[in-house]
Amino acid sequence: xxxxIIVKNIPFIIMGLLAFSVLVIWHELGxxxxxxxxxxxxxxxxxxxxxxxxxxxxxxxxxxxxMLPIGGYVKMLGEEGECxxxxxxxxxxxxxxxxxxxxxxxxxxxxAILLFGMVYSFRGTPVPNVGExxxxxxxIKTGIKEGDKILKANDKKIDTWTDFMTIMSENKGExxxxxxxxxxxxxxxxxxxxxxxxxxxxSFEVGIxxxxxxxxxxKSLNLGLMEVNSNIKQTFGFFGKAFKGKASKDDVGGxxxxxxxxxxxxxxxxxPLIYFMAIVSVQLAIFNILPFPALDGGWILILILQxxxxxxxxxxxxxxxxxxxxxxxxxxxxxxxxxxxxxPVI
Length: 346
Known about the structure:
Layout: H1 3-37, E1 42-57, E2 62-76, H2 94-123, E3 125-133, H3 138-142, E4 149-153, E5 156-157, H4 161-171, E6 176-182, E7 185-191, E8 194-198, E9 201-205, E10 208-213, H5 217-243, H6 255-268, H7 270-288, H8 296-309, H9 315-342
Antiparallel strand pairs: 1-2, 3-10, 4-5, 4-6, 6-7, 8-9
EC number: 3.4.24.-
Membrane topology: Multi-pass membrane protein
Keywords: Hydrolase, Membrane, Metal-binding, Metalloprotease, Protease, Transmembrane, Transmembrane helix, Zinc
């Protein structure tokens, strides 16, 4: 990549960094608000990572801006071990701690719904209804008609256009059983997607153009909720593939890939960028609820086990386990970043 191209893309790279930072800061804001509501002392709320650039000391919380404009964090009293202060995180009831920990991912899910809804309100959204059947496509040869509502594909319920396109992509040219609603009559079709290649990338099409609607904001939020649900299903579908050894290195992207993709969406305009932010917000929420030490999911698992058993785990031991988990996550991030550089997804 030439220096001239890099310079031209600097504004979009900055927008990408800011967009990702907004998602992480919003996540941490969830922890911050619930910590305050539950009477936990928050020692620090930082925007960014690394060396502190400047900050403001509040009544009890220090608000800092740090050097690296990626992410942020909330530091609570007693988060890493035993503490005698009654306002320490370690000394709060399990259910209170659970609300604090779960708030970050929940905030990301809520933000994703709002962002999807915003895009749909302004731009409209494709829905799994047949808006147009293309000539010479697989759909018209099968008998599918304009106005058909797609209900299921390979016995999987279709709530969004994303659901439909995902199944088409996963089947890679193999026949797909469709169930559609045509004026109240349920009809079944067997359709074989056609392989097409563009810019060196293969995809599969069925010759259907989705109906595009421009919903009210209330309807947009409902569609946003459905889109979040669709993204969750896709993500756990990927985990299933990875567990079975069917995922490839091109299915995984790290910070470099996220930055590249975010920059491309920023270049495409504000609505595409907001849409991609919604997708990343869902991924950030899912990543954080994984039951791994140092992640919110690790804490959630521990707190649920304590609530079930009625026993409290040693806070110092939990703190050490989380520290080891944090180091492991940093190592994983380094490895994924190296993979991004050596074997880029895009």
